[in-house]
Write a structure and sequence with these properties.
By secondary structure, the protein is mainly alpha-helical. The protein has seven helices and three strands, in the order αααβααββαα.
Length: 168
């Protein structure tokens, strides 16, 4: 098959470095970490208190968007384990941003509710969130953004279709 390639095509094939899936995965982790640090720093610069980190803010914003909800519903929406949600809720409750209220329909269940203290923080976060996101993604052209979203959605759909028990 290689005898059908031109000399230029052969050079191109041999000159391009081979990037392994492990290298791609490590780069993805490094970029995620760097973006998360920049995001956290930008939130702090915007005047949001330290307890309102990116992951905690995501929890608060989900509850704000959907209204009061059970912890298991929140875990499903966030795509994380229930025990992880419990850790976030424990911290947010300690910071007086979340209330746990017994579910009147099921006394075994707990409803999560935002406190009055949380509402202005969420509003401020919404105001700065768009600006932060634009600053972080600004280096990408519209075409690169579309390609990036396509790649991420492909990776996400592979995770869902693989039957990965670790993600449940």
């Amino acid at each position: 098959m290689s005898q059908h390639l031109s000399d230029e095509e052969k050079r191109t094939i041999t000159e391009e470095p081979i990037i392994t899936s492990t290298q791609i995965l490590h780069l993805l982790f490094q970029v995620k970490h760097a973006l998360q640090q920049k995001y956290e720093c930008s939130l702090a610069s915007a005047g949001l208190p330290k307890p309102v980190t990116g992951p905690r803010l995501r929890v608060l914003m989900e509850i704000a968007a959907d209204g009061d909800m059970r912890m298991n519903e929140l875990a499903k929406k966030l795509g994380i384990k229930a025990r992880t949600v419990t850790q976030f809720i424990d911290a947010l409750e300690k910071d007086e941003l979340i209330l746990r209220i017994p579910d009147p329909l099921d006394r075994r269940a707990i409803i999560l509710q935002l406190t009055e203290r949380a509402k202005p923080l969420i509003q401020k976060a919404k105001e700065v969130n768009f600006t932060i996101a634009e600053q972080l993604i600004e280096p990408l052209s519209p075409q690169q953004r579309a390609q990036f979203v396509d790649i991420l959605q492909t990776l996400q759909s592979c995770k869902k279709s693989s039957g990965d028990k670790c993600s449940e």
